[in-house]
Design goal:
The chain is mainly alpha-helical. Helix content is 56%, strand content 0%. It has one domain: ACP-like (Non-ribosomal Peptide Synthetase Peptidyl Carrier Protein, Chain A, Orthogonal Bundle). The two termini are 13 Å apart.
Length: 75
């Protein structure tokens, strides 16, 4: 499973996002992802890909591409 696929699954299953809305260019705000959901997503991705995402950086990400790229660059 890719980082994007894991992110999309989380957002659709746990945050109620519509699959068509979840694309790399989508912003967390546009998807109505709350801060605690971002933290849960970061924890899931950190465990799955063995990468730590510091909270200060997590909240600096505006789009899914920002987060996915960050993890892929370190994976």
């Amino acid at each position: 499973m890719t980082v994007f696929e894991a992110t999309k699954d989380f957002l659709c299953e746990r945050c109620g996002c519509h699959p068509d809305d979840v694309e790399l260019a989508a912003t967390f705000d546009a998807l109505n992802v709350a801060d605690f959901e971002r933290e849960s997503l970061a924890l899931l991705l950190s465990e799955a890909f063995e990468i730590e995402v510091p909270s200060d950086e997590l909240f600096a990400f505006e789009t899914l591409e920002d987060l996915v790229g960050y993890i892929e660059d370190r994976f």
